[in-house]
Specification:
0% helix, 15 strands, 37% strand, mainly beta
């Protein structure tokens, strides 16, 4: 309901004749709502219709939940010989209130760095997903920056841009290793360790047979270094 915060009544600009009536510019200040008042010059005057043309405000899109797609996550309990995936499928959610055509640009940096590096080709992405080949990346935790813009649907003055950061994403392509393996029949002992990822399974195969699970020395696989010992 109009109250004292509304602007005063303002007459329309000079009328322009149209084939089926006339048009005039609204001179009131810009706002979300408008109220019209018509004063008739005679009792025989008739208003058949009134149309107001306005420019809708371009609303900014919102990016959230940048993460690795479930099917691309490094599986736990990887069996010996199972290939390790160096390609991580990134996905993110988008709220697009105007249903504008959106494009995306990605950048990446290591968690303790300050400089962002472009990720992907020279052309922006048109879908909220990207397959990130991490083979050339050093192991560590990385941040992904997603920039979304509706520049293809609006002029440069009206286009809206938004940015969002991911939580740290672990890149761990270096293979785990065995250290201090000692075999004094029938006893075997050693240590399995990895730079970043916790050890999730240790197993052995005797004479090319089935892989047999081995327990960690402390009984729980929860660390990047796990001691083990078993009897053949």
């Amino acid at each position: 309901k109009p109250d004292k915060t509304w602007s005063p009544w303002t007459a329309l600009g000079p009328p322009q004749k149209l084939p089926h009536g006339s048009a005039a510019k609204v001179l009131s200040p810009s706002g979300r709502y408008v109220q019209a008042r018509v004063i008739f010059g005679s009792k025989d005057a008739v208003l058949s219709d009134l149309t107001l043309f306005y420019a809708a405000q371009n609303q900014r899109a919102r990016v959230s939940d940048i993460a690795i797609a479930d099917e691309a996550k490094k599986p736990l309990g990887v069996k010996p010989g199972r290939p390790h995936a160096t390609v991580l499928k990134l996905k993110w959610k988008v709220e697009n209130p105007d249903d504008d055509e959106l494009v995306y640009r990605l950048a990446v940096r290591e968690e303790n760095e300050t400089n962002w590096k472009p990720l992907g080709g020279p052309e922006p992405l048109t879908k909220p997903e990207y397959e990130w080949n991490t083979e050339s990346m050093a192991d560590g935790h990385y941040l992904i920056q997603v920039t979304a813009t509706d520049e293809r649907a609006h002029s440069a003055d009206d286009a809206q841009t938004t940015q969002q950061l991911s939580d740290p994403i672990l890149v761990d392509n270096k293979k785990p290793e065995l250290a201090g393996v000692v075999v004094r029949y029938p006893a075997v002992s050693g240590t399995a360790r990895d730079s970043f990822s916790p050890i999730t399974e240790i197993s052995y195969s005797l004479d090319g047979g089935d892989w047999q699970p081995v327990a960690s020395k402390d009984g729980v696989f929860d660390d990047t270094s796990e001691e083990f010992a078993f009897t053949l």
